[in-house]
Specification:
9-stranded mixed sheet; 16 helices; Rossmann fold; single chain; 36% helix; 6-stranded parallel sheet
Length: 484
């Protein structure tokens, strides 16, 4: 089977969030399982130092975008896993400080940039030496790709065109542009309609994928159900309900080669489920590193996050305001985002020295150390398509306290649902009161060493590896290929 993955970011070459991790890890797991994998992704600024040797001579091409010819080239790298990456190079489009924006302002030509990417991926799919059987497009940036393949199959004479799968990583980001963006697609205006990319008087890249892909998936079973409702559907729930039988949820996985507690250069002390002594040593080390009072007995809560309302960071700040004056606890934060939220956590750290530490910024090594040191990891997301930090927390023995939404509900087991298999604590309402209650429940759990160990060992022994999740995608690809 030959599968082409198309995405706007790919770890370790480019990354703004979980999309890069998911696509990179999935592609490599598929390749290791024997699937032929080609990935098409942009060549951004600074990527040359992260690439391996380029294979062969770059393939140069021209695309007509909105009446102007635009030059590009492909550079190929074959990784050790067997996955082949085709980097799409166009320096005016991709040699920029950011992937999508600067200073939280989107690039004005994002429609052109990512239609160029989608159309370049179509070229690779059409001219691959080994025919591509499935084109798997990820998120709005390549949402037009299933439409382009469909048009080539129906109107362009592409006999034996591949089947298409479109994966939604976060429905809140849709790629909406003015209707003139349609000119960049190279498609006739007769294909611009409500069962295509037309939406609200403009062009919606994500909707194009929802309407024209042969099958749809998202990154957790619960989120697949949630996005078919008005509450979580972001204005596209009607489209999703019409395609509900073509939609499935497959939970993202974890790269345990990177996220491990035994051979991890970011951690000062190794440990695992058979010997937890190193976890206590990591807790003491983090307390010293972040200026918290060194105390093995105090419950330590952690959070590593983009500081946004979606992640419920405002709820977390307010819950801490309520708890810190009267509870014996510590809190460690790593994150950046909304300046108002950054100030809130800095203020807490200033007012509760030795009990709250807030590091504003990005530090991959510190993210590992917070996970390894924490007794509890708090994720109060208003919605969460999958979430990865709760999966890291489970392996690191940090008991997740999560809002029961999306992938958080799918991956964390509450004792009220299954006491024998419990791995964390759920709360349901997106409110300060509900989060406060759940964190107080965590404090009560901490008072019982036996219960803490039960939850920890359950979580550390769960398997969310990409090898397991890749098998689900192979099964889905087979269904798509043999479907109607």
């Amino acid at each position: 089977m030959h599968v082409l993955l198309a995405a706007s970011e790919l770890h370790p070459y480019s990354k703004t969030g979980g999309l890069a991790d998911a696509v990179g890890s999935l592609g490599r797991a598929l390749a290791r399982s024997g699937v032929r994998v080609t990935v098409v992704t942009p060549f951004y600024r600074g990527m040359a130092s992260r690439m391996g040797p380029v294979t062969g001579t770059p393939w140069r091409f021209d695309l007509l975008l909105g009446g102007e010819w635009v030059e590009g080239e492909f550079m190929r790298v074959r990784e050790e896993s067997g996955m082949e990456v085709w980097f799409v190079r166009n320096d005016p489009f991709f040699d920029r400080p950011g992937l999508y924006n600067e200073g939280q302002h989107d690039y004005a030509d994002n429609a052109a940039r990512f239609l160029f990417l989608a159309r370049a991926a179509l070229l690779v799919a059409r001219h691959a030496a080994v025919p591509v059987e499935v084109v798997h497009a990820h998120d709005w940036q390549v949402g037009m790709l299933p439409l382009l393949v469909h048009h080539a199959r129906i109107a362009g004479g592409w006999h034996g065109a591949p089947r298409t799968l479109f994966t939604i990583h976060n429905l809140a980001y849709q790629g909406g542009f003015a209707s003139q963006a349609w000119l960049l697609s190279g498609l006739p205006w007769s294909w611009y309609h409500l069962e295509s990319a037309a939406h609200g008087g403009g062009v919606n890249f994500l909707k194009a994928g929802l309407c024209l892909a042969d099958a749809l998936s998202t990154v957790s079973p619960r989120y697949a159900r949630e996005i078919c409702t008005p509450e979580f559907g972001c204005g596209l729930d009607g489209v999703l309900r019409r395609r509900e039988h073509d939609l499935c949820g497959i939970l993202n996985g974890v790269d345990y080669a990177e996220w491990n507690t035994t051979r991890n250069p970011a951690l000062p002390h190794a440990y695992d489920s058979a010997d937890l002594r190193g976890k206590a040593l990591n807790k003491a080390a983090l307390q010293r590193e972040m200026g918290l009072a060194e105390d093995a007995s105090v419950p330590l809560f952690g959070n590593v996050s983009r500081l946004t309302d979606q992640k419920g960071c405002d709820l977390l700040a307010q819950a801490l305001e309520r708890m810190l004056p009267g509870e014996r606890m510590q809190f460690a934060l790593l994150g950046s985002g909304d300046p108002v939220l950054e100030r809130s956590f800095r203020s807490l750290a200033a007012r509760f020295p030795g009990r709250v530490a807030a590091r504003i910024g990005f530090d991959p090594g510190l993210a590992h150390r917070i996970e390894a040191a924490s007794d509890f990891y708090v994720m109060p997301s208003r919605f969460e398509p999958c979430g990865l930090n709760q999966l890291y927390s489970l392996r690191y023995g940090a008991i997740p306290v999560v809002r029961a939404t999306g992938g958080l509900a799918d991956s964390v087991v509450d004792a009220r649902d299954d006491a024998a298999s419990a791995t964390g604590i759920h709360f349901h309402e997106a409110s300060v009161t509900a989060l406060h209650w759940a964190m107080r429940k965590a404090l009560a759990l901490h008072a019982s060493p036996e219960a803490m160990e039960h939850y920890r060992l359950n979580g550390m022994n769960r398997d969310f590896s990409w090898e397991t999740q890749a098998r689900e995608y192979v099964r889905l690809y087979g269904e798509i290929l043999h479907g109607p």
